[in-house]
Amino acid sequence: MSRKRSLVSLLTAFSFLVLSVTGVLAFVRPFSIQIVGLHALIGFVFIGLIVLHVVNNNGHLGRYLKRGPVRMSLGAVVVLAGLFFWQPSPIKSVLGLSKNIGPSLDAYEIDELGMSYRYAPDPGYQMALTVRSGSGFDTEAPPHFAIWLENASHYHIKTLHTPPGEEGRTALPYWDFKLRGWEKAKREAEKSGTALADEAGIDAISGPTQNSSFDPGDYILPGNAEESLPYRLLLEINQPGDEQASLVYAVEIDNIDPRTFQLLDLVGYPKREEDDDDGKEVWSLYYIDESFGSALDLIDSALLTIERGE
Amino acid sequence: MKPPKPDTNRRDFLQKSVFGTAAAGLTIASTSHASAQAPAEALEPEVTNDVDVLVVGGGTAGHVAAIQAARAGAKTLLVERGAQLGGTTTTGGVAFPGLFDAWGKQVIAGIGWEIVKESVEMDGGTIPDFSKVPQRHWHNQVFTNQFLYALLAEEKCTEAGVEIAYYEFPEKVTESDTGWTVDCIGFGTRRRVTCKQIIDCTGGAEVVGMLGFPRLREEERQPGSYLFMMGEEHEPGRNQIHRLYVHGADSTNSRTVTVANMTGRKSILEKVRKEGKRLMHLQPETGFRESYRIEGETMVTVNDYRTGRVFDDAISYAFYPVDLHTKTGVKPKPLDPGTVPTIPLSALIPKGSKNIIVAGRCISSDRLANSGLRVQAPCMGMGQAAGVAATLAAKAGTTPLDVSLKEIHALLKEHGQIVPDIATA
User: Fold this and answer.
1) A299 and A249 in contact (C-beta within 8 Å)?
2) Do B330 and A206 touch (CB under 8 A)?
3) pTM, full prediction
4) ipTM of the complex
5) Which of B39, B125, B253, B293 could be cross-linked to B120 through a Cys-Cys bond (beta carbons 3.0 to 4.6 Å apart)?
6) Do residue A285 and residue B103 have CB atoms under 8 angstroms apart?
7) Is B199 in contact with B358 (CB distance < 8 Å)?
8) Helix (H), strand (E) at residue A39
9) What sign has the CA pseudo-torsion B6, B9, B12, B15?
10) Hey, where are the domains in chain A?
């Protein structure tokens, strides 16, 4: 009996070691069927061994359940499981570090080559934005970036990358203005129970054009591709200390006419207008003028790649 | 109708083509041979004009063409079937012409812009800031007071020396040794015009059709729009106006226009009854988007348009998304950043013709290119270029296509128009 218990315990310990090593490798390395396969199969063996281990030690386990800190243990596991399942921002950040799990979420990286951003909300939709740095790109103090999506009426529908801190928001006023407008409309819509499209005051001038959805899913993963709505991906960039306004680049994405590769075009620079009649702050984009110098060399190119599944 | 053979004798051709057109149901007179049996033809005209340039149609392109021709020294007559000038901008009520700018710069100016700007300034309105990136393509359309626009267009015609003949339309066009003899008819008026050059600005190239030159037309046209204002005050030059689609709207002839107008008005009346709101404004006519286009010496394709091809004989710019309206609405396809299409002179010349030029939405183009070319600012630009080409041709005793492009560009620039820089293209 004692020999059998020892065998089960040792098998459990060794298989746990394999499970741990393959788990870490699966996290830090790109996807590998050998690693993930080994991890999964040894996991099944481990489950069987655990069952035997519980059978061998049911007396001890029974005493733990009667006298041990059961509630605290159960609570801790439930909290961790909940966090890992819902994945709030800090958890997402940790998962984003993974070379394997990260691509299924979003990942932002900046280095001497420029900036790369990946967003893959679904296996059938994998977006990558690759910004190649230009001569004006300072790798020591890299520029602030914001990336977001807008619908055909130029209303913000989803921010993909937020610049860190208040400094980032100030440096990228156009994105900030769009985001604040969306947040305000969303708050008011929630309060009044109306549709966000009504709250945002979608104009009806171009009536026949569909432009009212605020659900990113309607654009990124439409139920019916034939009825999908075009949308835009925008990038705002600002190099700290260059004393020039931020620049906004954009590209239109149309799932009816899907393109894997698209280059972003420079649209303009933001300028604050006079507040509107309701005292609301208004920012508009203006065409680039002769006041811009090095800012125009921040980006050599900005390439959007979208891999769509079948 | 068969297109004329290039080597066909012009008089023979005209005779055949006029019969053909009549058979197609257009409102034109018979030939000189047939006229002996037609009492109406036997009547002598009450009015005669001998001019250098006859402009037919005083709409978006026509009044600009006439003003330009007269300002350049041509004796000019403008024949308009309606009661005022301006066409789509005034009678159609689409009083927000566009687009005069592209990518932060003005690309269309000249006489059309002069009238638009003056009417906005006189009305205390606002000219869009062209340095600002428009969120939607129509944001830089210029809100214009349609009533002022019509008055100013008429005043500028008069000041330039254009003779205006309202309520008239050509019923017969005959080639002569010096150009054309055109018989026009209005209520209680028969007018005979001899002219060196004709500028056809009828929208659907009606004169070109009378002459039997080939024209293109789609099986199904884009819907027209009937403009009105219901339940709120109409402030001319300040706001957009309500509109509804008139499906099947066709400006081919008086009968199809009648049908379109009655259909539009009936729908508006139903809407008024249903919603119980006050009808505050109603335009007299449907705004038509599409009918005939000419088959010109050059055809502008959607590829030319979307790539911003600079034609060797470019005379003006155009700018608008590809904007094809259908039964289910419209999904404009914007041009790529930096793209500004151009308009070639040869796309305004009916293939194989002499001494006639068109301007406006009937430009030789495929349907998708036309959906962007048809809007007002490019049509105004075409009108001015046609006015210049016809005037120079009349003075030199040649045909518009043979006029030196350099001279056309120089005169256009002298009259405030922006012309494509072909040398650097």
Assistant:
1) yes
2) yes
3) 0.76
4) 0.75
5) B125
6) no
7) yes
8) helix A33-56
9) positive
10) 2-95, 106-308
